[in-house]
Amino acid sequence: MRNQGRVAYGYLTPALLVLGGLLAYPIYQLVLISLFDYGQEQVSGGAPLTFLGLGNYRTLLGQQQFWTVLGQTVGFAAVCVVGSLLVGTALAILCTRVRTWARMVLFLAALGAWSTPAVAGSTIWLFLFDANFGFVNEVLGTTGFSWTFDKWTAFGLVAAQVIWCSFPFVMVTLYAGIKAIPTEVLEAAALDGASTARTAVSVTLPLLKPLLIVVTIQSIIWDFKVFTQIYVMTNGGGIAGRNLVLNVYAYQQAFAASEYGLGAAIGVVMTAVLLAITVFYLRALKRQGEVL
Amino acid sequence: MRLKRFVAVLGVGAVVACAPVQSGPSSSGADEKTGQLRVWLFDEVNRGPKEAVVKDAIAEFESAHSGVTVDVQYIQVQTRAERFKAAFSDPKSAPDVAEFGNTDLAGYVSAGGFSDLDLSKWGESKDLVPTVLDTAKVDGKVYGVPWFVGVRALYYRTDVFAELGIQPPKTLDEIAPIARRIRQAKPDMLGISAGGKYLFAALPFIWAQGGDIAKSDGGKFTSTVDSEQAKAGVAKYAELVKDDICPPAQCAGNGGDASVEGFRTGKAAMTIGGDFNRKSVDASAAAGKYGVVPLPGKTEGSIAPAFAGGNLLGVLKGTQRKSLSTEFVQLLASKKYQQKMYAAMGNLPTFSDVQQQVAESDKFLEPFTATLKSGTKFVPVTPSWAKIEAQAVLPTMIQEVVTGAKDVNAATKTAADAMNAAFAS
Question: Which Pfam families does the record match to this protein (chain B) (predicted)?
C-alpha cells in the first residue's frame, strides 16, 4: 500500500510542479504584495518596504466607489453571461436544424467573431456606432447620437460586443454536445410519443447539462474579468468613470498609479469573488441532485 | 498526514521568504569616457525633422568625443510610464539619457530614476527662463534641462468672428457668452471646443480666479481644489461644456487632442490649443482662417496663467557615463539645437533670448510668448501627482460637473479628498 502511494505521488509530481509554478506561486506573490505598501519607489529600491497587514484591504473596502464598481461589474457580467448563453444556445440548436451550407456559413461567421482580437473588435464596433460617421446611426437615421455618452447605452453597447465575441464558444461547444447525443435515445423518446418540446426538456437538456455547467462557469469567469472592451470602447471607464468595471478600476486606481499593493488587493478580492460565485453555483446544482 | 506536513513546510517557507522583491538603480559610481551612450527620445507623429536634428547633434557629439557612439531609441508617449518603470527597476535595460515630460518629473525622481544635474559650469544655463527651469526642479535641485516648452492659448476662427461682427474675448467671463452667441447663429458649430477631460484647458480658468489645485506647506501638499476661487474656476470652465456651447454628449469625453480635433474639422469656432498644435491646424479645414490670442484673464488686458508644459532632457541615475551623458544633454538642449528643433518641429525654446528671436521672426508665436512672459503655473511637484493623474481625479471632477452627476461643491470635495489621500500616501 505504502509503496503504491509513493508511486501515485510520483506520477502526480510533474502536474503538481506545473500547477505550483503557474498557479500557486503567482497567487502567493499576489497575496504577499497585497499586504505591503508596494509602490514604484519600493520596487525600484528608493524607499523601504512597509508591512501594512490588511491595510490595503481596509482602504479598498472603505472606498464607496469600489462597491459601486463591484456592483456594476456583477450586473454587467450577469447580462453578458445570460446574453452569450442565450445567443449561443439558440444558434447551436439552429445549427442542428439547417442545411450543411447554412451551417458552414454560420460557423464561419461565429469563428470570425471569436478569432477577432478584442482590441480590433472593440475598435470596429466603435466605428460602426460612431456618432457622426457610424453605419448604425446612418441606418437608424440618428446621426449625431452618441452611443458611448449615456451610462446605459454605453454599457449596452459594450455588453453587445462582449456577447458577440463570446457566444461562438458556447455555440460550438453546445453544438458538439447536441451532436454527441446518441440517436437511439432520441428515437426511443419519439417512439414513446414524446413531443419535440418534451424531448428537448426531458432528454436533450439533461444530457447537455455537464456541458452547460462548463460553459456557464467559463462565461462567468471571462465576463467578470472584462477589461479590453470597456477600456477601449468607453475610453478607460466612461464619462466621469461611470462605466468602470473591476478590472479597469484596478488598472486605473492601482497599476497605472503604481500602487501595486492596492492593485494586488483588488486582484485577491476578485479571485475570492470568482471562487465564491463558482462554488455557490456548483453547490446550487448539487442541491438539485446533479452529479458533478 | 503527509499532505499536512507538506502544507506545513510550505507555510514555513512562505513566512521565511516573506517580502516582495525590491531592486533598483544604485548609482554605480563608474564614469566611463568611452563606449555607447543610449538615449531615449519620444516618438512623434511626424518624426522625420526631429530625427534629422538629433542626427546632427549626434554627429557633432561623436566627432568631439572619439570612441563614443550614441544610440537613439524612439519610445511611444502612451507607453512611457511602463517603459520608464521597467528602466528604473532594471538598470541594465535603462538608457543613459532620456527625454521626459515635466509633469512626470517628481514621480521619476522619487522612484530614484534620474540623477540631479550640476548646470553651474554650463554658460548658457543662465538664460533659461526661470519659471520654465522651475518645472525641472524637485526640492530645489535640477534634474533635467528644459528642452522645449508648450503653452496653450485661444484659437479662434477669424471668418466666423468677422461674419458675426464680434471680437475675440477680452476677459475670461466673455468666453461663454461669445461662444453661446456663435452656436445660436450657427447651430451646427461648437461655440468653443472644450473637452471634459481637457485638464490643461481647465487649469487656467482656476488660476485666473486666483485659485489653485493644491498648496504646499513646507513640502507637504494639501488640495485646494475645493476652495471658493477654484470652485469658481471649475464652474466657469464647466459652463462651456453645455448644450448651448459644446454639448456634453459630444465634448464631455474629450481630452486635449480631441478638443483641438473639433477645431481642425472646422466644426468649432474656438478652442484652447498649444503652440505645438499649429502644424496640424495648418493642415486642416481651419487653415488660413484662424487667429490666436492669449487666453484672457479675469480683467481686461490680463492673461490667464497658462500651464507650463514641456519636455526635459535628463540623465538616468544608473548610468555608467554620467559626465558624457550630461555633456550630451547640454549639447542637445543648447541654444543652437533648440533653434534647430524650433525650425524643424515648431517647439518653443526655453531660453529667453532664443524665445525672443523666434517670436520676432514669427508673428504666430506672439500670443504664446506673451503668455509665457505674463507668468505660467505648474502642477504640484510631488510624486503623488503621477498618481492623481493616473487616477484621472481632476478630469473625473470636471466630467461630473458637466454631466450634472454632481454639483461643483460635491465634485470638488470628492476630488480634494482623493488628492489628499494621494498626497498622504
Answer: SBP_bac_8 (PF13416)
- C-alpha B140/C-alpha B53 separation (Å) is 31
Question: What is the overall mean pLDDT for chain B?
Answer: 89
User: Rounded to the nearest 10 degrees, how much is the dihedral formed by the CA atoms of B225, B406, A235, A248?
Assistant: 90
Residue B13 has pLDDT above 50, yes or no: no
- CA-nearest residue to A146 within chain B is B249
User: Phi and psi dihedrals of B85, rounded to 5?
Assistant: -60, -45
The set of residues, in sequence order, having a beta carbon less than 8 Å from that of B353 and lying 6+ positions away, is: B127, B335
* Closest among B210, B201, B249 to B231, alpha carbons compared: B210
Q: What is the DSSP letter of B66?
A: T
Asked if B414 and B406 touch (Cβ cutoff 8 Å), the reply is yes
Query: At B375, phi and psi to the nearest 5?
Result: 110, 130
- At CB < 8 Å, which residues of chain A contact B? 28-29, 32-33, 36-47, 49, 131, 145-146, 148-150, 235-242, 252-253, 256-259
Give the three cell numbers for residue B337: 539645437
> Which of B297, B269, B255 lies closest to B389 in space, CA to CA?
B255
- Decide the pairing of beta strands B97-101 and B309-316: antiparallel
Domains of chain A: 62-287 (1.10.3720.10)
ipTM exceeding 0.85, yes/no: no
| CA distance linking residue A269 with residue A275, whole number of Å | 10
Asked whether the CA dihedral B288, B294, B300, B304 is positive or negative, the reply is: positive
The CA angle A234-B249-B240, to the nearest 5 degrees, is 120
Asked whether the CA dihedral A192, A196, A199, A201 is positive or negative, the reply is negative
- Calculate mean pLDDT across residues A142-154: 89
Contact residues, chain B, for A41 at CB < 8 Å: 110-112, 383
Residue of B3, B88, B138 to mutate, interface with A, max A Cβ within 10 Å: B88
**What are the structural domains of chain B?**
35-149+308-377 (3.40.190.10), 152-307+382-424 (3.40.190.10)
- β-sheet bridge partners, residue A187: none
* Cβ neighbours of B77 (radius 10 Å): 13
Reduced to 3 states (helix: H, G, I; strand: E, B; else coil), residue B246 is: coil
Cβ contacts of A33 on chain B, cutoff 8 Å? 20
Res. B21: pLDDT tops 80:
no
| Helix or strand holding residue B351 (H, E) | none
Q: Would you give the distance in Å from CA B221 to the centre of its chain?
A: 20
Q: What is the pLDDT of residues A204-247, one digit of tens each?
A: 888 888 888 889 988 998 999 999 999 999 988 888 889 999 99
More confident residue, B82 or A33: A33
- Please state, in angstroms and as integers, the Cα–Cα distance from residue B258 to each residue in A237, B205, B254, B271, B392, following that order: 17, 19, 5, 11, 17
Q: Do A240 and B14 touch (CB under 8 A)?
A: no
Contact B35, B67 (CB under 8 A): yes
Backbone dihedral angles phi then psi of residue A81, each to the nearest 5 degrees: -65, -50
Contact predicate A155/A115, CB 8 Å: no
Question: Please, which residues bridge with residue B97 across strands?
Answer: B39, B315
